[in-house]
Amino acid sequence: MSTEAAQPTYLELTKHTLLVARATGGYLELYRECAFDDKPAVEETLAAFEAEWKTGGLRAVTALHPAPTHWHLSTAEEAPRHRTEEALRKFSAGLPHHLTGKLELTACHAADGSLLSPHGPTRWLLGLTPADSITTAIAAASEWRIEPARIESATLSHLGAITAALHAAGTGSVLLWDLSPDRSHLFLVTPQGIEAVIPCAIGLEEILNGVQTAAALKFRNTAVRLFYNDHHDFSEVGPKIAAHAAPALRAAFGSLPPGGTPPEFTCTGLTGKQAWFVREAALTLGLQPWSPDLAAICTQFKLQTDPVTIGTILTPASLGLLHYIASVAYRAPAWHPAWTRAGSTPLAVAPAPAPVAAAPVAAAKPAAPSAPKISDRTIACLRDEAYTTLCRQSLTDALAKIESEKQEIMATRPPFGMLGTKKARETFEASLSSATHTEAEYRQKLQQVDQLEHWLQSTIQDGLHEYLTGGSAEYQCYNEISLLVERWQNAVGALHELVLALARDARATATAVGSSHAGGRNGQLQVVASLRDIATHLHAEILKVARLTNEVARLADGKIPTASLLPPLPAFRHGAWVDQVILLLPAESVRELQLCEAEARAFCGGGKNDLLLRAESTRSICLRTRLEYLNKYWDQLRAHALQHYVEARDVDEVLAELTRHYVGADLKRRQREVVVNPFAHER
What we know:
Elements: E1 9-13, E2 17-24, E3 27-35, H1 39-49, H2 53-56, E4 58-64, E5 70-73, H3 85-92, E6 103-109, E7 124-130, H4 131-142, E8 146-153, H5 154-169, E9 174-179, E10 184-190, E11 193-200, H6 204-214, H7 220-227, H8 238-254, E12 264-267, H9 275-284, H10 294-300, H11 307-313, H12 319-329, E13 340-341, H13 376-411, H14 422-471, H15 473-514, H16 520-556, H17 575-581, H18 586-644, H19 651-676
Parallel strand pairs: 1-4, 4-8, 9-12
Antiparallel strand pairs: 1-2, 2-3, 5-7, 6-7, 6-13, 9-10, 10-11
Helix pairs in contact: 5-12, 6-7, 6-8, 8-9, 13-14, 13-18, 13-19, 14-15, 14-19, 15-16, 15-18, 16-17
C-alpha cells in the first residue's frame, strides 16, 4: 500500500456517491467527488489519489452513511437519565427504529458535538445502525479496493460543519435532509446545535423511483445514471422529481417545532452536481437552499488550500469531509464519536494519523489532477507581483519617513538666511540635499515598480483568462454570452436587406391592390407571391434571432440585470399575414400594407441601429461583469501569494532581479521584432 500516513486520504461514502480528499495536516491538497454509477469517473478519481490503487488498493480515513440508520434527539426529561453506553442501549430498545440484529451506537452532545459525559442535563443525539450495515458498506468499498483505516458517521460530520458555520455567523438556521436509501431524517440546526430531529417517510431509493417515473424511463439503472448525470438539464423534469418526494417531506417538515425565520435547506448523500435537486426540494417547502461560504469555512476549520480549489472544485457536499479532515488534523473530537457495538471494541481498525505540519503552497504537488490548473508561468508572475506589492509598500513607507525627515530638516533652517552661521547653513543644506537625493531614489524605484506591475498584470490577466475559460463554469458563461451577443448583432445587421425588400414589396403590393390597371391579375399575383416569400424568409430569420435572445436570457439569469438583456425585435409581418391582408377590401388592404412598409422602413432608418447599440450595451455589461469576476478571483490569489509565495528580501535585490528578468526579456523581444520587421516601429 503506497499511501503514506503523512499524506492520508479521506473518504465519504454513500451507496451512490464517493467524495475523496487528500490532506497533509491542515493543508488540503486534492479533492474530487463523483457518483459510483459512473465507473470511468470513479476509476479516474481513485487513480488521482493512488496511481496503483487497482493493484495495491487505497487505504483511507472513512466516513460512512450506513443504511439504515435511526437518529434520536433526547428530550429534556430523557437527557439526564440516559448518559452511559449501557443506559443508552437499554433506552434505545424502546425506540421505534425497527432495526434488527446487533446494533452499532454513537452519541454526542447535541449542542456542540462533544463526547457524552456521564452526568448532566444537556441534551444528546443518538445514532443507531445494524452492525451488518457497516459491514456491508465496508464490503462495497472493498469492491473498489478501498480499505477503511478508521470509520465514523458522515452524518455527524455534516452536522458538525453546519453547526460550526452557523455558530461563526451567530445567526441563521439550516434544515439538513439526511438522505439514506430506505429512510431519511430532517435535522434542524442553529448556532446552538441540533434543535430537532424528525424521521421522514421517504428515502433516496424511493426518490430514484420518482426519477424513473418523472422521466418515463424503462429501466431503474437508467434513472440512477440520469439523477447523477453532470450535464442533463433538469429544468423540466426536476420539479416532477421533487414533487414525488414532496408529500413525505412536507409531512416531516410540518412536525418540526414552530420557529421564527424559516431555515435554509440542504441535503447529504449527494454530490455538488445535484444542486438542482436540493433547490427543487427546498422550493417544495417554501425554503431557500443553503449557500455556505466555502472559503470562510475553510478558514474557520484552519484548513489551507488554494483559491482555485475553493472556487472551482469544492462544493457544499464537501463540508462534512472538510470537518472530518480538520478533526483529524487538529485532534478535535467534537462531532466525531466512534461507532460501538455491545460487547465488542469499536470498528476503528487503526488510530487516526498524527497531525502533520501544513505544507507550504509552493511545495504542494497534487497527483494527476483532472481539472485545468493555472499555468506555471502565471503562478510565477503572481509570486513576482506579490514581491512588487511588498516593494511598493516598503518604498511608500520609506517616502513617508523621508517626508517627515524633510519637515524636521526644514525646521532647522537658519533664520534670516545669510545671517546664520556658515556651519549651520552647510549642515542644513547637506541634510536637505541628502534627504532630497534619497527621496528621488525612492521615487525612481517606485517607477520601476510601476513598470514591472504593468508588465506582470497584463501577463497575469491573460493567464487567468485562459485558466478561468477552461476551469470556471460561470466565467465560461460570460464568454458564451458575449459570443452569442456578437452572433445576435451580426444576425440583426443581416436583416437589413430582407426588411428593406419587405418594404419595397409591401409598397408594390399596395400599388397593385389599389389600382386595377397595375399589371393586371397576373401582376398582382406576382407581387403578392414575392411579398409572401420575403415575409416568410424574414420570419424564419427573426425566429433564429429570437432563439439567440432566449439563450442569452437563460445564461444571463442572475448574472446580468434583466433591464440590460437583449431587446426584442419588432413584430414584422409574416407569410400568413400576407394571405390574410389580400382578402380585405382594397382600401383596408392598402392601409395595412402601407403600415407594414412604414414599420419596415423605420427599422432600416434607425431602429436597427438602436437595437445594435442596446446589444452592444449588453455585451459591455457582460464583459465588465466577467472582468469583475476575474479581478475578484485575482484578489484572492494576490492574498494567497502574499501569504505563501514570498519571504523577506532586500528591496534593491528584488527590483534588480525582476527588472533583469522582465524588462530585459521585453527588450530582447522588441529587438527580435525589429530584426524580423525593421519597419514595425513606424506603424
